[in-house]
Amino acid sequence: MDAHRRFPAHGYAGLAIILLAEVLLFSGDALVGRWFTPVIWTGFILFADALLYRFRGSSPLVSNRKEFLLAAIVSVGGWWLFELYNAPRFWRSDLELWWHYHNLEPNPYLRRVGYDWAFATIFPALFITAELFGATLFKNQSNRRPVKISKPFLYGLIFVGAMGAILPLVVVSQWLVPVVWLSWIALLDPLNALRSSPSITGDIARGSYRRLAVLLASGAVCGVLWEFWNYWAITKWTYTVPYFGDVKIFEMPVLGYFGFPPFAVECWAMYIFCRSLLDRRTTSSEHDREETRIWIAD
User: Fold this and answer.
1) Residue 226 to residue 229: CA distance in whole angstroms
2) Mind listing the pLDDT tens digit for each residue in 231-256?
3) What is the pTM assigned to this prediction?
4) What residues contact residue 243 under an 8 Å CB cut-off, 6+ apart?
């Protein structure tokens, strides 16, 4: 880390937002309590981005705002896709929701703003945190022996992923919750590899596990923070799962924490797939030199 590299002003703003939101929440401010999730994660993103700049000399909010905006937009769409898996439970009274939202904003227009604002923070928070791991703890991780991955194997993964993505919509069962958090990895990451876009399968074929490692670490850290901050908020979410659902840390059943690391990989595969549809000029060969990078360009 360059000792002379400045810490950007938006990092101090982010830290101030986090501290002020916490103080107001615990002092009983109902407005902050209802909007706590999007507010606190906005502060986190600002602070984490500034830290990344301090360590690496570049960051999405300083060097690549268009890419940051794209990730936020894909994040909103990605989470509404996940909400689709909850949708059958809204019109079937005999089914429990996988996750429930409580104390929502009564005004439907403001409620939608709250949804989309909160959803827009998910991918950027995961990716910036992953970049932080790549610039620090995993900075010097070396490559290992390449793993040969054949095209038939990739096509097989795509088939399994497609079936896994469709099955929970056709067979409405709480036991299929884990499938949702794994199927889109199996579907999209091999597609990204076949389209010559950055991919985890492509990294592994070259013997690089750094990007996978930083994404898994990011998912674990952000998952704990999501549940920690959610626990104290007024507007919050809870879960209904059939296995060990009463054994919880905060509002999340303990087994659910194992879903956060692969969730980060899934979000990244979605982002890369959507990004590749917009710009086919970027290929995996451009990332051979910097395989810890999460964003397309920085």
Assistant:
1) 6
2) 999 999 988 776 666 788 888 888 88
3) 0.91
4) 175, 253, 255
